[in-house]
Amino acid sequence: MLLINIVVRRGDVDMCGIGGVWCLGNAKLSKRDAKKLRYLAIYLETRGQDAFGFYNGEKVIKFPSSATDVIKMIDRIKPFNDLVVGRNMFLMHTRASTEGDPLKNKNNHPFELKDIVFAHNGIMYYYTKYEDIRFKNGSSSKYVDYIDTYEIFGKIEVDLPETDSFEIGVEIQKEYNESRDFVTALSEAFSFLVHYGDMAVWVYSKREDLLALFKHGRPLFIGFDNEKLWFASEEWMLRKIDVNNIRTLKEGELIVYSRAGEECFEIIEGEYSYKGSKGFFLEKEEIEELERGEREYWRLYRDYGFWYY
Question: What is the count of structural domains for the chain?
């Protein structure tokens, strides 16, 4: 039995955790990997205990409870290892809820759309295209750029989430519908989304069997263990499970992996305004800290009610 004592570190910042593993070549996940994923899930729990979910290449499984409790519940039904061993990916999310009641499981991550599965750590401060879907389904909305729910979900029957994070998937799927190319869709979508929130995201393409990782204003680290790419919200989590060659993604970095390895690397830049929505300006030293990467966007928004575009 796996016993881990952890201290939940919940400060004044809403945060979630993302992490998992992607197999390269013909590699498959082993019992050793399953044990590492148990540890990683519980480490990620230090960033959110409202819900835990994962995608193992076959199905999305999520529940409104902590990773510890969800894994114990699964083990009472069937061994957790059975959901891991022999797979070629295992992608996770632990939630600290902001928008959307976590007791309504539709609001918990990961989210599955027509061609993608994704999970998000961060906050979208402004809603756009997601409101269009609600309007299409009969709710009130001031937006008129309608989106057909079939174009977003395909044949998947979904009760629409009530969370800000779902905005990300809507935009990616919309671009994917137009370009029919995963990398192009991601580049176009994130170039738009960085102006409306902060995010560390994993996105899986069901159509092309590709994994994307993207960082904007939230932490995300990657490393390797043999022919497997591991990632997590914090560096120490990867070190604790003996992952090597760990590095942080740069601000705005988008990487896409196939089974052969890295397929795409791109830096997506977002611009920001020095004037806040409440009509003030940042001090000169604050601007310099922001430009040097010593301040993060979400802190400025939290501290000042400030927006950038």
Answer: 2
